[in-house]
Amino acid sequence: MSKKQRTLYRKTVFYTQLFFRKYPALPYISKWLCISIIIGGLVGTASAGFLQSLEWATNFRENHVWLIALLPVAGFLIGLVYYYYGKDVEAGNNVLIDSIHDPKEIIPFKMAPFVYLGTLVTHFFGGSAGREGTALQMAGAIADQLSKPFKLDKNERKILLIASIAAGFGSIFGTPLAGAVFGLEVFLIGRIRYNAIFPAFASAILANLATDLWNVKHTHYHIDLIPKIEFLPILYSILAGIAFGICAAGFSRFIHWVSSVFKSKIQYPPFRPVLGGIIVALAVFALGTTRYIGLGIPVIVESFEKQLPLYDFALKMIFTIVTLSAGFKGGEVTPLFFIGATLGSALSFFIPLPFGLLAGMGFVAVFAGATNTPLACMLMGIELFGAESGVYIAIACVVSYLISGHNSIYTKQKIGETKNSRFQNDQDKSISDL
């Protein structure tokens, strides 16, 4: 190397070091932007394919209602696959949350195709389930495969999984801001991990863009009337939030209790969804309607358009608890949207607020109470319904979160900050340990 080349080399090194001293966050941003672009593209594409598949399965089932009679057989097949080949991924979202708390082995990639096919089968034959669980598990299984190529350590893997959850949630519902905060908020109650804030937002936004590029449409909701912010409407919002929190706590407790009953009474796991499928199928044919199975999007939209009866939310809760507790695959969140929106619409018979506003408040507030993610749910409400409803949405979410107590649909959530100072002994415990 000539003297001139050595001088040029030294200058290059000097100015590079000087640049990185001046902008110390640049290596971090560059690295995680690169990873987020990959996560966003892969997860957004996976979500688009899943949403389209789910729409096809739903439409086919609604045009061939006799398929619901085969739900017990479908449940047996799902149970067999997970019992013999998927025990290590059967816990679903709890595997992701557990891995964030204590990363060990790379999440098996098979989680993605297993939950994808299991959820499609559940919806195709008439189970009552959602889509968020599938989206998150697909995202986590896909993203965690990047750990080795990028040589990520344990702390970086935690950030990776948070970003994947943000991407999955944001792309499946078309709410990237809520998705980002959900990823940051869901694994530890009462705390947010700020060192993951950039990857979470970048991954959620990019994943949502990728889903949109595939021309996949998300459902739009509209609240016709929003009252002026005054004392009485705020008081009524607090009362509604209490009802939503009680509903959220009840759903969380019942789904875990019914699941334990299935496990204690039926020792061979593949037989559990058989019984659950029989119960759901018989109930559908006895009621003569498919209103309470699948995602229930048409009923959610209806709750914004007119007052619905109280039994709508109760029946959806029963159908969903039986379906998921028995071992069928899917998520709880869209059913929680159904339960919250229909409950809110029905509360308009007793609470003098517009039924559309109450439906929107219930849509996100029951979800906030059942997942302990009030900030994500506030943002979701604003993204879906507009900023004009933001104050009412916030009140409902915060009250529901507080009223629901230390309950959750995710048993591996840990308590970072207790909701009440009287329960300090619960801090740092998992929901499953309470």
Secondary-structure-based class equals mainly alpha
User: Count the helices. How many?
Assistant: 17
Number of strands: 2
Low-confidence stretches: none
* SSE run: HHHHHHHHEHHHHHHHHHE
Shape descriptor: globular
Over all CA atoms, what is the radius of gyration? 23 Å
Give the mean pLDDT: 93
What share of residues are in beta strands? under 5%
How much helix is in the residues?
55-70%
Strand count, sense and barrel status of the largest sheet are: 2 strands, parallel
Measured between the Cα atoms of the first and last residue, the distance is: 67 Å
**Main sheet: which strands, in order across?**
1-2
Outline the structure in words.
The protein is mainly α. 66% of the residues lie in helices and 1% in strands. The chain is built from 17 helices and two strands. Helix 7 runs parallel beside helix 9, helix 10 (231-265) packs across helix 17 (390-403) and helix 11 runs antiparallel to helix 13 (311-326). It is globular, with a radius of gyration of 23 Å.
SSE arrangement:
Layout: H1 3-22, H2 26-63, H3 71-85, H4 93-101, H5 111-124, H6 132-143, H7 154-173, H8 176-185, E1 188-189, H9 197-213, H10 231-265, H11 272-287, H12 297-303, H13 311-326, H14 333-347, H15 355-371, H16 374-385, H17 390-403, E2 414-415
Parallel strand pairs: 1-2
Helix pairs in contact: 2-5, 2-6, 2-7, 2-9, 3-5, 3-11, 4-7, 5-6, 6-7, 7-8, 7-9, 8-9, 8-16, 10-13, 10-14, 10-15, 10-17, 11-13, 12-14, 13-14, 14-15, 15-16, 15-17, 16-17
Q: How would you briefly describe this protein structure?
A:
Helix content is 66%, strand content 1%.
